[in-house]
Amino acid sequence: MTYFAALLFPLSALAGTYTFSGRVIDRKNGKPVSFATVVLKVSGQWAVAGEDGTFSIGNIAEGKNLLSVSCLGYVETTEEISFSKDISGHTICLDEDNLALESVVVTARANENSATTSRTIDRTALDHIQAMNVADISALLPGGVTTNPSLVSEQRFSIRSGGASEAGNPSFGTAVEVDGVRLSNNGSFSGTEGVATNNIASTDIESVEVISGVPSVEYGDINSGIVKINTRKGVTPYMVTMSSNPKTKQVSASKGFSLGTDGRGRTKGVVNANIEYTRAISDLMSPYTSYDRKQLSLTWSNTFSSGIFTDAPLRISASVAGNLGGYDSKADPDAFIGTYTKRSDNMLRGNFTLDWLLSRKWITNLELKGSVVYNDRQSESRTNYSSAAATVALHGREEGYFVAQKYETDPDAAAILIPAGYRYNTMCVDDRPLNYSLSLKAGWIRSFGKVNNRVKLGAEWTGDKNFGHGQYSEDMSTAPGFREWDYSLIPFMNNLAAYLEENVHIPLGRTLLSLTAGIRGENTFIRGSVYGNTSSVSPRFNAKYTIIREGNAVRNLSVRAGWGTAVKLPSFSILYPTPSYEDIRVFNPTTSADGSAYYAYYVRPRTIEYNGNLRWQKSRQAEIGIDADFGIVKVSLSGYYSRILDSYFIGSDYERFSYNYTDQTNLELCTIPVEDRIFSIDRETGIVTVNDASGKMKPQVLGHSIRNSFVRTSYADNSISPITRYGLEWVLDFKKIRAINTTVRIDGSFYGYRSADMNIIPSYPSISLSADGSPFKYVGYYIGGDSVSNGRETMTVNTNLTVTTHIPRIRLILSLRLEATLHDYSRYLSDGDGIVRSYVREGQQDYFPLEGAGDIYSGRYYTVMYPKYYVSFDNPEPRDFLEDFKWAAENDRQLYTDLSRLVVRSNYLYFFSKDYISPYFSANFSVTKEIGDMASVSVYANNFFNNYGQVYSTRTGQYSSVTGRIPSFFYGLTLRLKF
Amino acid sequence: MKKFIILALAAVFAAAACEKTPAEPPVQVSVNLLYDGQPFETEGVTVNLSDLNGSASYQATTDASGCAVFQVLPGIYSASATYSVSEGSDLFIYNGINSNVSVSAAGDNIFEINLVQSESNQILIKELYIGGCPKDDGSGYYQFDKYVILYNNSAEEATLTTNFSIGMCSPANSNATNKYYEGGVLTYTDWIPAYCSIWWFQEPVTIAPYSQIVVALNGAIDHTQTYSQSVDLSDPEYYVTYAPEIYTNVNYHPAPSANIPSSHYLQTYKYNAFGNAWVLSNNSPAFFVFSTEGRTPSDFSQDPGVLQEVNAAATDAMVPVDWVIDGIEVFRATYDADNQKRLLPAVDAGNVTFKAQLGYSLYRNVDKEATEALPENEGLLVYNYSGGTESEAEGSTDPSGIDAEASIANGARIIYKDTNNSSNDFHQRRTASLRK
User: Fold this and answer.
1) Closest Cα to residue A791, out of A714, A865, A729?
2) β-strands A688-692, B57-61: how paired?
């Protein structure tokens, strides 16, 4: 709020400029605080204190400003400063950040200066919850639900969503940054998920900021929220951390070193080093399958403020972090010997930042950033196989008929015959995505009268590439069927973004209006592909009106609103779906005495139509909020509404296809002895010929029949159905009850989600035969696919009560948290966008709608759903399904049987019933105790009442265990040493 | 905090205090047999009363009014009774089961068993081998070697017409959630749900008296080449369930041995929407054979009117119980509390418990009296049968003591027990009879 106070005062560069210098010291011992960051927030100018704690900032405009001083290990301090002359010798005292202070917070703290919803979790809170995976902090957000820490399974952020089961790729749309470096999953070929956070060292984190509202246009390639992780930077003592819980052990050491000064007294900067080893297991009963994280990070930072940089200091920071580790089941004695799965999660991350404070009339500062993130996600899985009969492994990528060949005969055969017996094979996946970015951002901060104006102009170039070679086997003679798909052949996806943002603070009497408006344009370049260049524009707007500041009954009151569009770039899994193949077995032989069976296949690469019209998935988000301080309680409310548009999905269609088929009845006419038969097949015609290995008989051509079928094609597409999310988040922070050193916080969220898929999706039951014994002849086209439902709606209310007792005198903090899910509602949907998609039917065996029945939501019914239309092999023109189905029931038994296979019926009376789950609760506690300045201990227990109760479902009328909805009883301990 | 600790301790104490419950005394339970709604006034019928968790089993015989009396502890039980009587050359069997006998300390505890009448059949299931066997390299077990032996249990030649079919009940495992149960009672009474698809013979098959045919239910190949504890199913006389364009999974359905003519491939139509294999449970199927009446099996299974979807992955055909020739209800060992019957009493009023993956088989018991009565068996029967698994937990053996396979090898003719109650009719054999 002090920040706004300063903004209310006129500040004009025209009246003259001044210099501000002083010294930062430790309040307790009076010693200088080296490398403290001194910022004048109104003018955006800054300096970094030298080793002796001194600092100097020049070119400061006349007027009031807001001084903010921060340093790693100290509590940030702010004060108003009025500049009408040079100020020198100003002393700033900083308090060491520890539990002896009154101001300790172990929950997510709202960023009060932000016009959008943004919260920060600092190191104290991270220590208190003993986060081992940064994704664990999600529990500290309003309405957050605690989950027990796990590193063996991948964890992801998914802001303002109900999790991975929802449509619209929610985790893919949540961005994660470490020190401004975007961790991108766009180079992945394995789905549209966000980055897993398992390989981020949790002990190196200083704070995490979660922006869940409409973000600045500075941030692109997102749909729903951004998580900004900041690592430690600055001089620190040695810090050693040892953590343990039943499934994870962790040890780390870190230190911030000052490199001292050179011969001319200039600082050489600071190096921060952190090393961490974490080992997690998945199962206490079999503690061998594990995930390891071995991470080293180094950061050098320095500020040049002498010589040519005297009036324009340059701050440089460069980091490198590397991780070795991953999943490994190799040592598990419970697994069959010699079999294992290993998945690397190695990472190398490098980045630099140059922040140049120019303090010119036409530019305030210039920031240049660059980063490279390389991931090594290679995996290998050694499996034991056995079979009583030969099997065929298909590797061919070209179209045609192929009969199985022994590996010794043709190692490059499209179909390899794998003999009967026992064997091992190791399959590997070479997956090595790389992401780089380079950005330049200029800031211009000026005040015109009372109006403070900030302009941000920037450009960003990013690229994604995968250097992996995809799937391969170490021994092709025993490898199961797979197709090579070399990721490295896919070109870079480059993206150029430019943005402009205006942020203006307008004092209106004693109130303050802050407006932020920005626009971001992106152009994506994928050379040599149909995607070519694709453009998108994202406008965003935020406003905040501070109505009351430092009032009486209401101390502070502000309202805020935001609206914006955000675009999520596709991943390679969308742009270049892994090719799939239609492998049709066209020759079924007999099995010989040695177990060999030379099957033949028609290999048909499924057409992947690269969709040149693909649009980038985007979200439109609106938010309103109110923040008020009533003295005894601080209230923060945020309501939001977002729609995901053009979400990515892989569409499909079918095309007619005929092939020749030969089976044992044809083979029975062959007179060549079984043991002498050598099979060949014409690649073009599919005619099978049997040759006599003994040479005594002439080759014999087998008969065949023609099969008419459909084969699938696929393509990347945009869904026509928006995904709607809405919600309300609240935080009530009650004033500290000093008599018992206790604060009470109530936070919670209401979350609603609705999605119904209106895309016309074809379905072909390829493993069914028609009633006449031929391959199935019909393809149904359904609204939202061939499932009983095509969508879901959910509404949940989670609320948490956190009681924190902090006794500074004994440096102890204890928090008790009761998590409650008070409302848990869901219902499956079958919506046809104005067309009836599902009908009520009377009995479980009925295929037709019940005349005069209500809609499917009006009671408990069996339902039936039909394709909107269908095509047949003989008639590719779409025909109304229900009309033909009714006719066939009376007139054409065979057609009726066949079309009945396309009818989708529900099996439960309650399928579309509303499902309310009875409320459920969990209680957790955490304790942190500092022992002098050298050590601290934290202990936590989740679900310490060991709640194994039951919840009731109104949909099924059944009780079920609450396990899975709340964490099971779990505990952990951390010891931290500083010296 | 202190309060919470006190509360937690109190909760723990309360929980511990609740663990001990006073022992309840046994109560009297009366089970009355009914047939066609009237008392089945027959003395000496054995009634079984089994604790549903498998921990206790009791037997009592009926008095002249058809009532059996037990003294048991309160709990949930299943009561069953089987009675057979010869009338001329026909053998009539009365079977009944009440799987919802809830005995309470305060109730009158009078229950009923409704008996249904069925006949013994000429064709019966002699053996069902489903459990698989250990692999030679110790990497688990192999289960794609299932087979069934159909046996002519009469002195007359038997013919399996092209209407003769094979099916399995839904759900596939006895311990799985069974949607057909409501209030502890099966909801179907005159049909049996055939899961996934049924199989039928291409051509009529004739079985000589006291002879058998083998139908490989997965691979009709020599499995012993890789798995020495398995069986050789590549004999030219064998039949196989094989439809490669429908069930494409070559592990379950490999190409049959070149020895076996394609006319021995049973045919099918898959009415289930999913699945690339006909997956007969390896631990607890309810398996049955039947003959369609008035229509072909193909026509029957393609009739949408006989189908109903059990869940998203399972469609069943409703096979009229009158069509069923024989069936076997297999219960999964160690799942006693969850096992539920699927076959109706007219088909199989009991169950046989089975342990999978060890090479065990389900083999029909010998009708000692009838077999010994055949004059041509004089001196050919082999006794002291030791192939059972009665020494193991939930194991069983043939109470006749006759070693059927050794006797057959000796030239004897075996008449197997057929009371339409697999509790009486089957036992768990240590090895498959086809294993050499």
Assistant:
1) A865
2) unpaired
Distances (CA, A) of A769 to A796, B179, B321: 44, 28, 27
DSSP code string of A493-513: EEEEEEEEEEEEEEEETTEEE
Alpha-helical (H) ranges within A158-226 are none
Tell whether B148 and B282 lie within a shared domain.
yes
Single-letter code of the amino acid located at A836: V
Q: Give the mean model confidence (pLDDT) for residues A908-922.
A: 94
Per-residue pLDDT, averaged over A795-815, amounts to 93
Question: Which residues on chain B are in Cβ contact (under 8 Å) with A422?
Answer: 135-137, 139, 226
Separation between Cα atoms, residue A311 and residue A322, nearest integer Å: 36
- How many C-beta atoms surround the C-beta of residue A575 within 10 A? 24
Any domain includes B238: yes
Question: Which of B200, B262, B298 has the most A C-beta neighbours within 10 Å, making it the best mutation to test the interface with A?
Answer: B262
CA B342, B348, B351, B356 torsion-angle sign: negative
Is residue B260, in this structure, part of any structural domain at all?
yes
Contact at 8 Å (CB) between A874 and A779? no
Subunit contact B8:A769, Cβ cutoff 8 A: no
Residue written as tokens 């000496």? B44
Out of B100, B119, B138, pick the residue that ends a domain. B119
Query: B145 vs A388: CB contact, 8 Å cut-off?
Result: yes
Chain-chain contact of A845 with B308 (C-beta, under 8 angstroms): yes
Burial class, B15, CB count within 10 angstroms (exposed 0-12 / middle 13-18 / buried 19+): exposed
Q: Which residues on A lie below 8 Å from B240 (Cβ)?
A: none
Q: CATH no. for residue B63?
A: 2.60.40.10
Residue B226 belongs to domain spanning: 123-365+416-429
Residue A368 banded pLDDT, cuts 50, 70, 90? very high
Q: How close is the nearest chain A Cα to the Cα of B307, in Å?
A: 7
B352: enclosing H helix or E strand: strand B352-354
Q: Which residues pair with A560 in a beta bridge?
A: A544, A625
Side-chain-facing half-sphere of A125: CA atoms under 13 Å: 22
Q: Which of B226, B244, B269 sits opposite A420 (nearest CB)?
A: B226
pLDDT tens across B138-169, in order?
A: 889 999 999 999 999 999 999 999 999 999 99
Token pair 């076996």 in the structure block, residue: B260
Q: A386, B179: Cβ pair inside 8 Å? A: no
A31: tokens are 């010693």
The per-residue b/e assignment along B140-174, b for 16 or more CB within 10 angstroms, e otherwise, is ebbbbbbbbbbbbbbeeebebebbbbbbbbbbbbb
End-to-end CA distance of chain B: give it in Å, rounded: 70
Amino acid letter for position A223: N
Q: Read off the tokens for A732.
A: 């009530």
Report the C-alpha gap between A740 and A788 in whole angstroms.
57
b/e sequence A706-715, b meaning 16+ C-beta within 10 Å: ebbbbbbbbb
Structure tokens given for A976: 């931290």
Cis peptide before B171 (omega within 30 of 0): yes
- Are residues B94 and B130 located together in one domain of the fold? no
**Residues B165 and B109 grouped into a single domain:** no
Strands A608-609 and A705-718 turn out to be parallel
Q: Is residue B382 part of a domain?
A: no
Statement to judge: residues B152 and B193 lie in one domain: yes
Give the CA dihedral A75, A81, A86, A90, nearest 10 degrees. -30
Rounded Cα distance between A468 and A191, Å, is 16
Rg (chain A; Cα; Å): 33
CA A311 to the chain's CA centroid: 43
pLDDT for A253-302, tens place per residue? 999 998 888 888 788 889 999 999 999 998 887 778 899 999 999 999 99
**Helix, strand, or coil (residue B408):** helix
**CA-only gyration radius of chain B, Å:** 23
Residue B317 lies in a domain: yes
